[in-house]
Structure prediction request, 502 residues.
Amino acid sequence: MSTIGRDRLKRLARLSDGKVRRADGLQLLEGRRLVSEALTAHRVTELFVRDEAAARRYAGMEPEIPVHCIGAQDMDRLAEVRTPQDVIGIGPLPSLLGVDAILAEHRRILLLDGVQDPGNAGSLVRTGAALGLSAVLLHGPTADITSPKVLRASAGTLFRSALGRVESAGALDDALATHPHTLVLPVVHGGRSPREVRVPDAFLLALGNEGAGTSLAGDPSSALRITIPMSAGVESLNVAAACAAILGAWL
Amino acid sequence: MSTIGRDRLKRLARLSDGKVRRADGLQLLEGRRLVSEALTAHRVTELFVRDEAAARRYAGMEPEIPVHCIGAQDMDRLAEVRTPQDVIGIGPLPSLLGVDAILAEHRRILLLDGVQDPGNAGSLVRTGAALGLSAVLLHGPTADITSPKVLRASAGTLFRSALGRVESAGALDDALATHPHTLVLPVVHGGRSPREVRVPDAFLLALGNEGAGTSLAGDPSSALRITIPMSAGVESLNVAAACAAILGAWL
Prediction:
């Protein structure tokens, strides 16, 4: 157990700001579930707890990680959420792989294509992780996956996924030309029902903003356009529900 | 177009409180999407807008519904959300049918069993409505479906569903004894994969609190226990994602 200076605590409390995260190369892990997932992935460098009992417990579990007992008030200052947290961790920002590296290692991949809402982005990662997708590719103006909101909505599953970035639609086309993956594009109308198609052996499931769909046109000759058959008149599913419905059909 | 007294406006602004809704028999419909769905369902008695142009538009569309132009400030007071709304409606609370009436008329039914989180309750209704469920039954301490949060999360699809209440597990058993519906119970372990079972012709899909599952035991001889095959180590899907995955498998 160790102490920590006020200036350092103040700085850490600012990690809810993306600019500070990028400057310091650190992210906040609020609460037991996120900390537990991040510990499993060896992605925690320090822990903060409210009392000595918790400090002893974590120090016993993870003898190599510094545990700071900072009291309830400072814990509340550190956390973005209002609900009191037992434990808060600090860990390095994830490093994002290139699209080739991801496609070389993973068969079933979630492609977040401009999903700006942090709750939707996190829910998509969680749903994908539960239903067999082992990697996440980011493209376009997608929510910052190191933000506390995305991490919370992902329920820590971000630490189970390989992460990569697609720099451009062209880079994606190039990668798809050399890997066997099918680009799966959910579209509101005119695609095939997910139950009617043969499930591709390897695929990227692209999900964009709610309603707007994805910005990736995809090579018309190879992309698989999927339309979830919906009740008449209902406008759209939430994007995370659409992801779950497609993957449910492909279980 | 008509005017409206200050006292009445103050009272209407309190409709975000469930007690006031029940006392007055009214609910708030915030924003175009909810108002549009409620208008289609003939569930709007008055409309409030911010300017004369909007007042004329709605008065032209719906000549029998009083439209009050109350200005931006009063619109903001009336709304629960902070985002400015173009239109806010008032309508009667829904009447809930009995379980027999629902089972007599609907083949595919969502059973909200103690879903306390308003966002989850609304998302479940939305997902169910999109994927073929035409009625919603409420059981146990489920979120108030007339609250602005549930209505928003449902994206107005609550107005497309028949609504009913199950008074007790016994009442449900009695109803299931006289109707052909299968009680579908998602369970974390030990159930059958949704893709492996024959989709029941008529069913109630019971969804409970996240993680906790449903409180309904169901008659072991007739209930269909469903387990979504999930990636090793991932704890659970969000309850709305679980609903989407099952219905996706049954599309």
Remarks:
- Residues 120 and 217 of chain B are 22 Å apart (CA to CA).
- Residues 118-130 of chain B form the longest helix (13 residues).
